Amino acid sequence: MNIFQLARANVRALEPYQSARRIGGKGSIWLNANEYPQPTFYMPRSGNLNRYPDCQPKGIINSYASYAGVQPNQVLACRGADEGIELMIRAFCEPGQDAILFCPPTYGMYRVSAETFGVECRTVPALDNWQLDLPEIYTRLNGVKLVYICSPNNPTGNIINLSDTRKLLEMTDGRTLLVADEAYIDFCPVASLASLLTDYPHLVILRTLSKAFALAGLRCGFVLANADVIELLLKVIAPYPLSLPVADIAEQALSAEGLRQTSQRIAEINSNRNFLISELAKCPCVCVVFPSVSNYLLVCFDPAYHVFQTLWDQGTILRDQSKQTGLSDCLRITIGTRLECQSLVVALKALTLSPTLP
């Protein structure tokens, strides 16, 4: 029996998302996955692991609603923002009939999740400044159920203009849901769209504890939306999306002390990002350091220096973005500790002595 032939045709043809851990590498400086560089110290407390957890733990829902400035009935807890992406497709898109739309260069899981369920992907490349091409989006909306935007955008690090987002919300009103991926919004909270939920019932926002909360390994995220959307998502979500240990640590992270620690981490990352921007400008191998409000930088390098492979071999692991639309010779660099940032700069400056691989 050929097991491969028993799989769905779209799954056989699917190109999977290559996460940082899936790509691998061997190194001592990991700047490729947009993680916080040091561990947090939350510990699971004792609990009755013989019992199933609540589907939507009230303590977490209430705490995150307070943090995000929304009502508890506008919050759904899930297994990372990635599950939120998938839940929206499962709840709203008919396979073989509906489509989603997104604007590359951007996060790759929108495509993978849609293709997994046999839902068409439409793309409208971002403009040269990585803002939305609104006229082109408008021409491609027929049959689209979900429009995904990412702000701050991964991997470019920019915020989508609020005026453009409002225009897109007006454009999609009554025909399409707009899903705003705010996985990195904690680094620039003033740019959140959460305050617009009341005015736009078709707005959906994705959040996570993976980035600023330094809990990437926890796999805990949230969908913020109006109650009708949350009710539909509750129909398709797994019966127990958060295990008891996950719920326990998430509740600690959302406590007053946890939020204080998160604020400290954000200030540290912002400081290290500014340091790295300044130092990268002094490296001969660097062509452009693009502005970012997040915990990573997109940098265009002179290809003659073979930066990605050389640093990979030396144990400094970055994320290659050169296959993304419009990002030739670009690498994404996660903001690490100050020592890691300094070590990276030293390695990059050393490349001026040997600009070609042996």
From TrEMBL:
Stretches assigned to the Aminotransferase class I/classII large domain: 29-347
Cofactor: pyridoxal 5'-phosphate
SUPFAM superfamilies: PLP-dependent transferases
GO molecular function: histidinol-phosphate transaminase activity; pyridoxal phosphate binding
Pathway the protein contributes to: Amino-acid biosynthesis; L-histidine biosynthesis; L-histidine from 5-phospho-alpha-D-ribose 1-diphosphate: step 7/9
Domain of life: Bacteria
Oligomer and partners: Homodimer.
NCBIfam families per record: hisC
Protein name: Histidinol-phosphate aminotransferase
Organism annotation: Candidatus Palibaumannia cicadellinicola
Source organism phylogeny: Bacteria, Pseudomonadati, Pseudomonadota, Gammaproteobacteria, Candidatus Palibaumannia
Protein encoded by which gene: hisC
